[in-house]
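Notebook entry, cofactor series.
This is the third protein in the set we're modelling with a bound small molecule. For this one the ligand is magnesium ion. I'm keeping the input format identical across the series so the outputs can be compared line by line later. Sequence and SMILES below, as received.
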Amino acid sequence: MTHPIDYRGFYLVFREISRLVHSTSSVDEVIRLAVYKTTELLYAKGTLMRVRNPDTGEFEVAAACGIAERFLDKPPVSCEKIMEDLQGGEKVRIFRDIWAAPRTDSPQQVWDEGVRMILDVPLYHDEELLGLIRAYLSDAHGFEQAELDFVVSLGEQCACALNKARLIETQRSQYNRLVLQTEKLSALGRMAAGIAHEINNPLAGILLYSSNMLKKAGPESPFRQGLEIIVRETSRCKGIIQELLEFSRHKPPKKCPAKINEIIEKALSIVDNEMMLRHIKVEKRLARDMENILLDGNQMEQVFINLLLNAAQAIDKNGHIVIETRMDPCRRIEIVEITDDGCGIAPIDATRLFEPFYSNKNTGTGLGLAVSYGIVRNHNGHIKVASKLGGGTRFTIELPVHVGSGADTSDRGTEHGTP
Ligand SMILES: Nc1ncnc2c1ncn2[C@@H]1O[C@H](COP(=O)(O)OP(=O)(O)OP(=O)(O)O)[C@@H](O)[C@H]1O
Ligand SMILES: [Mg+2]
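Returned structure with ligand:
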């Protein structure tokens, strides 16, 4: 029996599905409409759609139309089985002999239901199989090309919707993981701050009494060496506790117009000695056209000291650090780059650098970069890292230039030099 082709119906359904795919993130609506309209426009007895479950990889029944209730309770089909059935790679597979159709558990029952032909449309997105539409027809007639084109296009739209839903789901679960991690970190931070506070006072007592005893112990005293160790190690613990308290305190920045180059010069003068001891050459490439920007000078100085010390520690001895500033007038930002030719960072470690307490140094607290990250973010800026294991590291800081922060663009050019 031949049916009139409903070209207008094809066009309207296609338009409706395209609209849905772009306007909604609910894939259910798209696949429901697809099975319903496939049934209607192909004059099918019923249509069933299987969709791949991303967790199990199996293809489960996701929507159906015109299929008797007792046929809906179908078990999931493994991906391997479906791929095996689709080996030919056709966009539509037509089975005029329903006994030859794959995955038909009981062809006789299907026949008794009045089905004489089965049509399969695999749903591919970028060559990845995301689902399958199966239409059951009551007569084994031929199809016009327009009808086949319609089901293929419908399948492509469904694959798009499935892919979109999958991307949204991935983003959502990544976001949830991040939120959970942030909550855990902030709880850990609060706990660490509480412990640090409790430890701070007894530590101050130990340091005070041991320092007094050390002063009183003569050079020959048998206690002298032990006391020196107590004082040194207690001071180190106090330093760590102090940094931890500073980190958890979240001081808001006190911003005033400042020149980034001057802050860098101050930071360099503080780490100068360290660089000399390690025989590290520091090259300054400070652009002269840097504008005044709103900054908390002390906090930003701390950031540069952290980055320069990290660079020096990554080099250990005999290396080269370049500190460069420049203005990006189009994006209205100032850029500071600190590049070293030190040990570099493995990609897996690079993802954790800014986490509090992440350190691979014996004496590091792992707070340097976490604190620097917080400070730069409080200045509405960005800090990023590019590194290659064994090939050095570059930290880039971008800070916005605020309107009205007191532009000063008097002399332009770039200064090169070694301190
Ligand atoms: N320039 C760099 N080159 C190679 N590795 C780096 C560099 N900067 C940071 N790192 C890595 O990032 C880790 C975290 O740095 P961060 O400054 O936060 O802590 P830290 O230096 O270990 O301790 P501290 O709290 O004393 O600064 C370091 O332990 C180091 O492994
Ligand atoms: Mg550090």
